[in-house]
Amino acid sequence: MAVPSHKTSKSNKRARRGHIKLVAAGMSACPNCGELRKSHYVCASCGFYNGQEVVKSAK
């Protein structure tokens, strides 16, 4: 059976897992009000999506 004969060091283990990390969500500016929002989501501040008011804003 294939059994490692030496302990894998922390640096070797972490170098192998270098691609496992968190990425920031894709944020874009709302074309209506200019606030940052997630792409393909309704704007939380003005309620617009794709140029139409989808949700009535509480303002």
**Class computed from helices, strands and strand pairing:** alpha+beta
Q: Describe the largest sheet.
A: 2 strands, antiparallel
Q: How do the strands of the widest beta sheet line up side by side?
A: 1-2
Give the number of helices.
1
Helix proportion range: 10-25%
GO molecular function: structural constituent of ribosome
Pfam families: Ribosomal_L32p
Family: Belongs to the bacterial ribosomal protein bL32 family.
Keywords: Ribonucleoprotein, Ribosomal protein
What does this entry look like structurally?
With 59 residues, the chain is of the alpha+beta class. It has a domain at 23-54. The protein contains one helix and four strands. The protein has one helix at residues 10-16; strands spanning 27-29, 36-38, 48-49, 52-53. Strand 1 and strand 2 form a beta hairpin. The radius of gyration is 23 Å and the shape is rod-shaped. It starts with 9 loop residues before the first helix and ends in a 6-residue tail after the last strand. InterPro entries: Ribosomal_bL32, Ribosomal_bL32_bact, Ribosomal_zn-bd. This is Large ribosomal subunit protein bL32. Belongs to the bacterial ribosomal protein bL32 family. One of its GO terms (cellular component) is large ribosomal subunit.
